[in-house]
Structure formats: C-alpha cells, structure tokens
Specification:
Blueprint: H1 7-33, H2 40-48, E1 84-91, E2 96-102, E3 105-110, E4 114-115, E5 118-123, E6 127-132, E7 135-140, E8 174-176, E9 181-183, H3 185-193, H4 195-201, E10 202-209, E11 212-221, H5 226-229, E12 237-241, E13 244-245, H6 249-257, E14 264-271, E15 274-282
Parallel strand pairs: 9-15
Antiparallel strand pairs: 1-2, 2-3, 4-5, 5-6, 6-7, 8-9, 10-11, 11-12, 12-13, 12-14, 14-15
Length: 283
C-alpha cells in the first residue's frame, strides 16, 4: 500500500488517466463527425415510415362525395322549318314528290330526301311532313289565297291586288344536227328546277302489264314546246333513259334529280310496234 503513494506511482497513474481522457475525447470527435446519429435499427424504422399519411376527414364511414363533371351544353345547329316553303305536291303509286323553296332556290324532294336538316317523310293533299331530331313539322302548301302555315304572319295590313307577273319562258333551245339533237344546258336547268313547267308542256302516264309498270306513255305534247322539239310524240312509251329502266315513278324521279349532271342523254322509246333510240347532246 505504501508503494501506491510513492511519487513515481502517482505520476504513472496521472499519465494513464490522461491517456484515457485523450482516447475518450478522440472517440467523441470521431463519432460526432463521421458516425450516424442513430443506430442501424433506428435507421431501418425511419426508412420504413411513409412520406405521407392518408387522413379521412369525414366524421362517419360514408365515402367522400365525388364531384360530377358538368358536360357543356351542345346546341343543335341548323336552320328553321320557317325557311322552307312548299310550292307543289305530286303523288304517285310508289313515290311522293314535292317542290320546295329554300333560300330563294327551288328544289325537288322525294320521300327520305333532306333539306336544311329536315327530312321529308310524307305529304297530303295540301301539306308535307318533315322530321328532325325525332320531331315532326307540318308545312302547308302555298296557294294564291294563303301562305304556308310554317310562316305565321300577324297584324299584316291587306294589300292591293296586283296583276300576276308573266311567267318567264325557258331560255335555250333544241337544235337538230342530223343524227342527234343538241339541248342548251340553260333549258335543261330551267326544267330541272321548275317541275310545274314540265306538266304544262307534256303529259305522262304509266303503262302497266298486270300490276307491273313497264314504261310511261306520252299522253300529249304541247305544240312548239321544247319537248316537241325533242322529237317525242303523243303515244310514245319511254322505256329507259341512259340505260336506266323506267319502270316506276321512283326510277323516273332518280333520273330527274341527276339531270343537271348529264352531258348526254339517250332515250329508248316504243313507237307503235317499233323500238327507237333518241340521242341528245347537252352543252
């Protein structure tokens, strides 16, 4: 015990204590600069934590309300039935044909044809039925004493009766060049948009064998009319036009609708017991 208190032993003890303090200080500096502040287990726990948490704010178990997207209202485009004037109606066994005026232009329609977004469904004696977007529209026939019911006129003062303007004659003519005839296109365009003028100059009736239509007979031709200049006569039976067999009103009307696009026309007719071909050039 006496040796422990010797000056030499005390010096040795002080040196060892100083070394221990130095090592602890060095370890503290190393751990502070390079070692992580948490251990491995704590680091794993921190890595497994979610970056965010889903929090339900509703007080009960009902799902949160979903906001519905409001679709923009799409307005249907198109014109009005008031833009259509009914000028004439023609009824046949298999087709109904009407003449209408739309935006100052005359057009001929048959069942199923459309104008201004309205489809012609049927027609009576003095009206035509059109449909659009599952709705029906009734247009009355314009006569000398009234206007179409599709045009309502209120508070109009009576006007003085004026003389009717003379009907414009069809422009153009038919020229005979020998083996065929040449028709002015202006003349063809006139009759393509003025059905009434056709029936003023020529009468046509169906020819049947039993219940089947086999052609159309010319009942009369007005003298000096363009139809007389075409070379057709009373009693002729039209059998085909440009290869299209004319065995129904719908077949005849399909040719009539496309007449403006024709450059040539070939008529096969029966005259008495003979079959003839009439050739026309349109320019």
């Amino acid at each position: 015990m006496k040796d422990l208190f010797k000056p030499e032993m005390i010096k040795k003890s002080i040196v060892v204590l100083a070394l221990l303090l130095g090592v602890k200080l060095l370890w503290f500096v190393v751990s502070l600069l390079w070692l992580p502040t948490v251990d491995i287990d704590e680091a794993k726990k921190e890595a497994n934590k979610a970056l965010y948490y889903r929090v339900k704010l509703t007080p009960n178990n009902a799902p949160a309300p979903v906001q519905k997207k409001v679709k923009p209202v799409i307005r249907a485009s198109g014109g009005s039935i008031k833009d259509i004037k009914l000028l004439a109606i023609y009824h046949a066994s298999d087709i109904t044909v009407v003449t209408i005026e739309h935006k100052s232009k005359t057009k001929v329609l048959s069942n199923g044809d459309a104008i201004n977004g309205f489809i012609l469904e049927s027609a009576g004696n003095n009206y035509a039925l059109f449909s659009k977007a599952e709705k029906e529209y009734k247009v009355m026939l314009i006569t000398n004493s009234k206007v179409s019911a599709s045009h309502s006129i209120v508070g109009v003062k009576p006007t003085k009766i004026t003389k009717k303007k003379p009907v414009k004659k069809a422009l153009g003519k038919v020229t005979d060049v020998g083996d065929h005839k040449v028709i002015d296109r202006a003349l063809l365009d006139h009759y393509a948009t003025n059905v009434d003028d056709i029936y003023k100059n020529i009468g046509i009736g169906e020819v049947k064998k039993g219940k089947d239509v086999v052609g159309f007979r010319i009942n009369f031709v007005r003298r000096d009319s363009p139809f007389a200049q075409l070379g057709i006569r009373r009693g002729d039976i039209i059998q085909s036009i440009n290869g299209q067999v004319i065995d129904s009103y719908s077949a005849a009307f399909s040719v009539y609708k496309n007449i403006k696009d024709m450059d040539n026309m070939n008529l096969v007719i029966q005259r008495g017991k003979d079959e003839m071909e009439l050739e026309y050039e349109i320019n």
